[in-house]
Amino acid sequence: MAPMRDDRRDARIAKRARRSDAELDHDRRVRERARAAPDPYESALNAAARGALNSSNESALDAVRASVEGDGAIPGPWTIAGAAARGHLEMIEYLRTLEPPCEWDEKACTEAAENARAETLKYLVTNGCPSGAMTCAFTARKGDLDLLAWLRERGVPWDEQTTSGAAYNGHLHVLIWAREHGCNWNWRTTYEAAYHGYLGCLKYALDRDCPLPTGDDLNKLIETVRRRAAEDDDEDEPNEFAQVLKLIDPTDPLMNDLQNIMSFIDSYAVELAPEGEYLDVCLRAQRIFTKLSEMKSGKFERRDRRDFNVRRDFLNEVLQVRRDVVNEFRL
């Protein structure tokens, strides 16, 4: 009986193999036909793109209608997203009345928000188009507080990208509103404010304990802001990048402050105080100055050199030394 069972098993294996070969051949023929025929999905997208270059929404709609109804093109979510980016509301309405309706996704709302198409965005949200956090983020970047509030009333989600989006273009009123209504933030908010030179947004964020970036992100930011501060030669306008630099990297002004204190001690301390009474203040100033010099040259501990809290602690130490000098010498 064993040989018979083996024969049946071999027959089943051979049958599977023949079926698999047939299926593979069928798949091959389908792929060849697909390569030879134009992609209807792509045709619809191209029609939308061509229509967008015309002078009117009507001609754009005609191009899409001809592609869909005449060529049998199949529109998809990117077709609606392309229309939303250009504010072609009639095209979106047409695509949604097809049978079956053209699919849409959150990309449509994102494109409308990124391109400041407020009416189109309201239509999409009102009619149930999915939306994501980037919708609020781009709305905040555009500074449209009324639209942002409208979106939030209708449950459109937001996250840290909304606050960083407001800081990106210096929209302090949007940043304040978002925070007062519970929007989160992270180091991207201070990064964007500092990188683009928006002192008001940066001060607001730092005063409320929004973190600065750390590590290489902070170092690159400091380098960029320092370069822009040096390039700003407009004497009629305040150099906001220079003010930003003081907030994100107080090393330079701290060292200047300490040098002034130490120069004063060296020049006048002996005359103003009994010998030896000023030595403690002098030694403390020298110690902090040495630390700052090491930090600036890269010899300080890697973690401390990149930690904004350490920098802020140094600032407090310098301020205390300054107060001690004033009290010691009754200035």
UniProtKB/TrEMBL annotation:
Domain of life: Eukaryota
Residue spans of biased composition, Basic and acidic residues class: 1-36
Xref: InterPro entries: Ankyrin_rpt-contain_sf (IPR036770), SecEffector_AnkRepeat (IPR052050)
Gene3D superfamilies associated with the record: Ankyrin repeat-containing domain
Signal peptide range: none
Annotated spans, Disordered: 1-40
Record protein name field: Ankyrin repeat-containing domain
Native species: Ostreococcus tauri
Phylogenetic lineage: Eukaryota, Viridiplantae, Chlorophyta, Mamiellophyceae, Mamiellales
